[in-house]
Design a protein that fits this description.
Belongs to the HAD-like hydrolase superfamily. CbbY/CbbZ/Gph/YieH family. The protein is an alpha/beta fold. Helices cover 44% and strands 11% of the residues. The chain folds into two domains: 140 residues, 3-Layer(aba) Sandwich (Rossmann fold); 67 residues, Orthogonal Bundle (DNA polymerase, domain 1).
Length: 218
């Protein structure tokens, strides 16, 4: 294991809730309901792809100009929610795990569809731990396309087979697999069944457990 690549929302910080609230607010403004169950389809994909799903859910037809305006309105509200984040918002066990990895010489990268990833890492104090940040500003294709993780591996100078991806979304797991990487799911095993391993969170997760995974898949 030479590198770890982390998704952001729902893996390192719980901004997934903020995304949902922002999309739900937009849906209400457009006159329809948007539920947490429907929001599951948005995990791991880009803002504009998410918008298309939201509009389709409400049966809304929109021009390109209107779509850009809706996306900006959603993002402005999302950033407003994120602006009050602090290091206390890093999910349990994450910081300790990343510190252990860096002590072992493992490179650390971010692979997120969010265009606000850098801003959020600054708010919660995680940016200094990352050797590269690949976000929605650097990729043309959203997950499940493997581009985000391929760029991350190239930035870090590692082969895909020596990288482990940490994901909470089905689209992210598929993207990592298509990139030729091992995948650790963070969340529900029933949803992330294609991951090589699934853990509920980072609390108690050790590098030894991941070394066992690496040995099994050689």
């Amino acid at each position: 294991m030479h590198a770890f690549l982390f998704d952001l929302d729902g893996v390192l910080v719980d901004t997934a809730r903020f995304h949902f609230l922002a999309w739900q607010r937009l849906a209400h403004q457009l006159g329809f309901e948007f539920t947490e169950t429907q929001n599951e389809a948005l995990k791991g994909i880009s803002r504009m792809d998410s918008l298309e799903i939201v509009l389709k859910t409400g049966g809304i037809q929109a021009t390109n100009e209107e779509k850009l305006r809706y996306a900006e309105e959603k993002n402005a509200y999302y950033l407003r929610l994120c602006s009050e984040m602090t290091p206390a918002d890093v999910l349990p066990g994450v910081l300790n795990f990343i510190r252990q990895a860096r002590e072992r010489g493992i490179l650390i990268g971010l692979g997120s569809a969010s265009k606000n990833a850098g801003t959020i890492l600054d708010h919660v104090g995680l940016r200094p731990y990352f050797d590269t940040i690949v976000d929605g500003n650097r990729v043309r294709k959203s997950k499940p396309d493997p581009e985000v993780f391929q760029i991350g591996a190239a930035d870090l100078g590692v082969l895909p087979g020596s990288a482990v991806v940490f994901e909470d979304a089905v689209a992210g797991v598929e993207a990592a697999k298509r990139a030729g990487m091992k995948v650790v799911g963070i969340g529900d095993p029933a949803i992330l069944k294609e991951a090589d391993r699934v853990f509920p969170n980072f609390e108690g997760l050790s590098l030894t457990q991941l070394e066992e995974l690496a040995a099994e898949t050689k």
